[in-house]
Amino acid sequence: MKILNYFIVLLFVSLAQELFAQEPDSVKAGSETFRFEAAVLDTVNILDADLLSPAKAALYSAVIPGLGQAYNGKYWKIPLVYGGLFFYGYLIYENNIQYQYFRRNLIAEIDSNPETINITGREAENLRANRDRFRRFRDLDMILLSVTYFLQIIDAHIDAHLLYFRINPDFTVFVDPAIMPTNHLLPTGISIKLKF
Q1: Are strands 32-36 and 25-29 parallel, antiparallel or unpaired?
Q2: Residue 65's pLDDT is what?
Q3: Residue 178 in 3-state DSSP?
Q4: Rounded Cα–Cα distance for residues 125 and 64 (Å)
C-alpha cells in the first residue's frame, strides 16, 4: 500500500511540474512588480537545435527499458531501471514456485486418487492458506513490476521535457507572515504567504 501511495505522490509531482512550467509571469507585491522565470526555455532556436524529443524517449523506454534514459544521456539511471525490473521478476518467479508447490500438494490432499501424495504432511486448510498467500504475493509483484516499467517510461518522457529548462538565478521567494483575526479574544491561527 505504501508503494501505491509513493506512486500517487510521484504522479502528482510530475503533473505539477507540467502545469507550473508555463510562460514567465509577473506578481505584484506591495507597490513593486517582480518578474520571475521559474522554468523557461534556454535561448535556443528550436528549428536549428538538435532537441531531444520526449515522445521518442518514451517510445524508446517502452520498447527497451532503459533506452529512453540512454537517449536522454542519463546513463546512471539504467542500472536502477534494470535492478527494479529484475528484482520484481525474481520475486514473481520465487512466489510462483511456492504457489505451484502448495497448489500441487493441496490437489493431492483433497482428491480421492491414492496415487497422488501430499509430501508436506500438512492439512488441506494449511495448504490452501499458503497457496493463497503466495498467489497474492506473486500477483502483487506483477503489479509492482508493471508500475516499475511504466515509471521508467514516465521518467524518460519527463526528463526529455526538462532537459532544456533552467532555473533563473534571480528566482526569489517572499515570506509574508500574518496573524489571522478571529471573533475570539486571542488569535487562533497564523498564515504564511509565499510570493514568487
Answers
A1: antiparallel
A2: 95
A3: strand
A4: 43
Instruction: Determine the Cα–Cα distance for residues 102 and 124; give it in Å rounded to an integer.
Output: 10
Mind spelling out the 3-state secondary structure of 23-91? CCEEEEECCEEEEECCCEECCCCCCCCCCCCHHHHHHHHHHCCCHHHHHCCCHHHHHHHHHHHHHHHHH
pTM of the model: 0.59
Which candidate, 165, 92, 95, 161, places its Cα nearest to that of 130?
95
Q: What percent of the chain has pLDDT over 70?
A: 59
Q: Distance between CA atoms of 4 and 154, rounded to whole angstroms?
A: 16
Spans of all domains in the chain: 25-49+172-196, 52-163
Spans of the chain below 50 pLDDT: 19-49
H/E stretch holding 192: strand 190-195
